[in-house]
Amino acid sequence: MWRRLIAFSRKRPQWVDEVGFPKLDEAMVVQEIAPQRRGRVKFNGCIWYAITEQQCFGPNQRVQVLYRQGNTLVVGPLPEPDRKGRIRP
What are the C-alpha distances in Å from 27 to residues 2, 3, 8, 56? Predict the structure, then answer.
């Protein structure tokens, strides 16, 4: 049992892509999200409640997970890529 725990604890997540920029947490909208209404997103294989502070998002739209508030994710629009196609934070 301890060997499994130790082996699991040695795995570290990859927080940067191959170029060195931080990876963004993306989610897919399942149910419409509006500024004053809670919707749902699929994030890491699970369905989460989500809210947004600024704009509306429709189903099948990709969004960025900004932070978590209890059991609800706060999402926003994905940043635009630069001329080389890279997304900077």
Answer: 34, 33, 25, 14
Pairwise CA distance, residues 47 & 44, whole Å? 8
Structural domain count of the chain:
1
The 10 Å Cβ neighbour count of residue 3 is: 7
Counted residue by residue, the chain has a size of 89
Share of the chain above pLDDT 90, in %: 39
Beta bridge partners of 78: none
Structure tokens of 62?
Answer: 């990709």
pLDDT per residue as tens digits for the range 38-49: 999 998 888 999
Report the C-alpha gap between 69 and 6 in whole angstroms.
Answer: 30
Residue 54 is given by DSSP the state S
Q: In CATH, what number is assigned to the domain containing residue 55?
A: 2.40.50.140
